[in-house]
Amino acid sequence: MSACGRMDLQEKTRIFVCSNHFLPYDYARGHKNRVLNIVAVPLCLTEPSHHDQDQVQSEVSVKQSEELYDTAIQVIPPKCCAEIREKLRLKIRILSGLREKLRRMRSENLKLKKDVKCLKKSLSQFSNSRAKESAQEKLMEGCFSSAQLHILKGGKRPKQWDHGELVKALCLRALSPKAFTYVREQLKFPLPGLSTLGKWFGKLIKCVPGLQHEVLNLMEHQGRIMDDFEKVCVLSFDEMKIDSRLSYDASCDTLYGPCNQMMVAMVRGLFSYWKQPIFYAFDAKMKEDLWVSIVEAVHVAGFHVVANVCDMGGQNMSLWRQLHITPEKSYCWHPCDPTRPIFFFADAPHLMKLIRNHLIDRGFQLGEISINKQPLQELIFLNKGDVRLCHKVSEGHLNLSNIEKQRVRPAIQLLSHTVAQGLRHSVPQSDALANFIDTVNDFFDVFNSRCTMEDPPEKSGYGCKLNNQDAALERMLTLCQSMRIPGARHLLPFQKGILVSIASLRGLFHFVRDRYQAKYILTSRLNQDCLENLFGQIRALGRTYVNPSPVSARHRFRSLLLTCGKNVVRIEGASVAEVNDGTFFDSSSRSYEAASTSASGQPGNLLDISYNVPEESPSFPDEFHQGKNESELSEFIESGDLDQVPADCCSREDATDNASHESNEALEKVAGFIAFKLKSTCPELSYGSEAVSRNWLDRIDRGGLIKPSTSWLNSVIQLERDFQVWHGERFRNGGLLISDLVSHLKSKYPHIPHEALMLFVRTRTFFRIKRLNAEHEARIGRRKCAKLKILQS
Known about the structure:
alpha+beta; seven-stranded mixed sheet; 14 strands
């Protein structure tokens, strides 16, 4: 009882000790029942019950264990050896450590149970919230990618956007720049920025003039999941009017122009809904070798060109002659596959315009019968009021300006079945003109079918109502062969185009029916509407600026290159700069402030002197490499009016070796502008305690101009002489326009900072561009005046 620490039980007579208080080696061996050894002491305590938890904290400590040992020693008989006593002492110490460890573990166990309970509660709440988030994510997976969902949940933007995310953002940007900005900035949709799109698209598509090999590679990849029937395509090409002035593209350091037109070639599916531009060039002529290279490139990509469409321009007719295209032989063999013919078509809407123009201007001679616009004038005169027989036709359909003659819709409305019936009904003796219009209308219906079956039958897909359609084509064939322009003995180009198109349509239908088992052809895919739509999108991207420069046209074309099949950015490139900003020489501090900051309020590009530039680029005149003299640099810069060009010119030697005092003062202002732009990185360009004799800057200074140091001003004067020597009277041929000159000057003047050299050359280049453009515009004005005087005389 003393060893158990229960001294209160010594007076009781019947007391039992549970076997759980003894260790296994406390029992004697060789007995049937369990018998304790003579030195056995109850050292194991039972686990306390729930209401005895407080007593666990106050169990036997090390000191108590020593007391327990002393008590146990007194119980052991003296006869026991010292070895037993030492064992007992060791057991008591082990017991003390175990008891302390047990106490700590029980305490820790209670804490862990509380933590487990809290975690279970949190897990339950998290599971419920996670289930709701999963349901929301499933609803949003169709609209957003995983990275975008991560951003919406408060995460960081990815370091690199996925290809699909960039394509979606590019399509939205191409559909509407304002919608893209609104969705990204106002609605906070996680979309990549314009700079990211520009860099990605610039790496993906270089878009240099010529064949677009990157696009053809993508077409080849896409064609692997298409069958041969879907790969049958039509090649069409046309020109678009652009600004004839030269322009500089800083993204590739290239000068474009002078050029008047941009040619674009496009392929579109004949039996499937797709279209893709594959070629563009400035002032290019579609000759036989170029046409063959385009067809071969399309063939290598895995697509099959079976038809070619173009208008009746002089260059296109020259291509027809080179390929021996005639009404008797309206096709040529494929350059890569001699078993495949390529049929040639004239653009049907273009033919309708030509027919209308000739009818209004001179009329036609149909055998012994003459037709002209007089019956149409009578019809329009008779059809007045609110309710008219021919409500779509007015005097504006007959009195057309040169620009209005380019529109297709008035020609289609005038040469329609309704007008023919109106002539028969209202104008006597107009049957010949009515029959002529009916024949032309049926011809256009056959070549403009958009549905499989439609009423009248001529509008159905060619092949669905073959008897009616062939009859209409035969009537037009007979009419075209007998029709003559008064004073003309032979067929005109538009008449040959009609005959070739009729023969090609019949031949193409038989070919695709035999080779691809096609049942009909939607002939609306055999015109240039796809190209006209592309040109309309290119013009629309400039808003009111519908006559883009070569660089602007290139950037707009690149934006629509991959997405035009679905009528889908222009990526606004800050690399294209405009120098026609009259505020450049404003001496107020506000103008320089605007020059050094961009539209977003951030510091502008060191090479960007256009400040808040539109997408337009500077342009050059037509006579870029043909001029003889150069305007005086001093008068040009000193005047401060970039729109005025002095008439007197000086030689290159005078401008290089004998710079006048006025030109030095003008260069002083240029040096001050460069010093202001680089005042943080190159403070040595600004004057300190030194001063230079100045007159012009003192006169125009309003408190915002920075005056250059003497050394920097002398350097600018020398750089101006080197610029004159390098470019001569206009611009140097070949090489990079700005980079080559900067490299030359850097090797010659290593002490001048590279940023200052780059900014000087860029600024000076734009000055010359502006002057050359002014000369070009003045030259055009003089030519127009001369032509007008000749016409008046």
